[in-house]
Write a structure and sequence with these properties.
120 residues; mainly alpha; 6 helices
């Protein structure tokens, strides 16, 4: 992922726009994309600063709290439960998740269901 432009460059662009230049003119003079200056000007109008917003971050897991407890209780009580069955049960509770998300959740919880040739 790239880095945001420096505040010095952003401030010079905002100074030019404040003096009456268009965003396209300021961008050409500073050798940046016009879309960058346009976005900085929008941010400056909305927040009073052209400073970059937060980059990256962490998205919380969808299956947590009571949903986590429900999934764990379902897999403990049954020998054969599919990811699709779990996804349908969570949907009934108001949480729409993809079966792959449930698979990642189970992996994080240390639950693994491996097929075994000897068992077949």
């Amino acid at each position: 992922m790239g880095r945001p432009y420096s505040m010095d460059l952003r401030q010079r662009a905002m100074d030019r726009v404040a003096l009456g230049e268009t965003c396209h003119e300021a961008a050409a003079a500073l050798k940046v994309a016009p879309s960058s200056v346009i976005k900085w000007a929008q941010r400056h109008r909305q927040t009073g600063s052209a400073a970059p917003g937060k980059m990256g971050g962490h998205r919380p897991h969808a299956i947590a709290g009571s949903h986590r407890d429900w999934v764990l209780s379902r897999i403990e009580g049954q020998d054969h439960v599919t990811l699709e069955i779990l996804a349908a049960g969570l949907l009934e509770q108001g949480l729409k998740v993809h079966p792959a998300s449930i698979s990642r959740f189970l992996h994080r919880e240390g639950k693994s269901f491996k097929k075994n040739r000897a068992a077949g």
